[in-house]
Design goal:
Elements (H helix, E strand, L loop, with lengths): L11 H14 L3 E5 L10 E5 L5 H14 L3 E6 L6 H9 L3 E3 L4 H13 L3 E4 L17 H9 L3 E7 L1 H4 L12 E5 L6 H12 L3 H22 L7
Parallel strand pairs: 1-7, 2-5, 2-6, 3-4, 3-5
Antiparallel strand pairs: 6-7
Helix pairs in contact: 1-2, 4-5, 5-8, 7-8
Length: 229
Amino acid sequence: MPDRGRKESFSLKYRFVRILLILLSLPYIKKINGTQNLLKQNPYIIAANHASHIDWAFFYNRFSAITKRHVHCFATIKYYNVPFFNLYVTLSQSIWMDPRQPVRSMYAALEYLKHGEIVAIFPEGTRSPDGKIKKGKTGVAALVLQAKVPVVPVGLIGTDKVLPKGAVLPRFARCQANIGEPMRFDTFYKEHDEAVDQNDQDKILEIEEKVTRIIMKEIARLSDQEYPY
């Protein structure tokens, strides 16, 4: 893994796949706002709402091109046998998420962050069936509080119109991404570390739920939604 801040090298296959997906996305992406918030150096987490497969195919490829760095996404293991999806996960050095072994996936993400890289996560855990933001899972907070890195929130708008859950082919519609300013959670580190040291599971959950709610509210704002949870 690369050192902090060092420009990453990409394989020719990954460059080709990334360019292909970027070209395919051109008719559908209306705008990407806030690209200056995608840090060019140091580790951080990108957290976005999730309503369509094109969320990663269209936007995370763009983010990788903008930062000139790998964006290591979490990818559900149930798509392991889908050839193109598997190829993309492999080439982009993303992380297979197996619900039966969540600790392994978390460890892989922490290792990337430890070595100064970018990890992308959809806190809702799965695609929204109707495009409306769902309750975030605490995995994003656990990752933030253990890695002690910033979170760059992203609100995706309209991706469910392009490729709704259950659809096979994209429909002609326009979508956009609003990238928010990096969020830092330094004030929670000490309390969370103490709760972990004491194995106080109730306190750990309380802190992680609080951090998750803060992140999800900002994602909802950036996607022109309300977060009711």
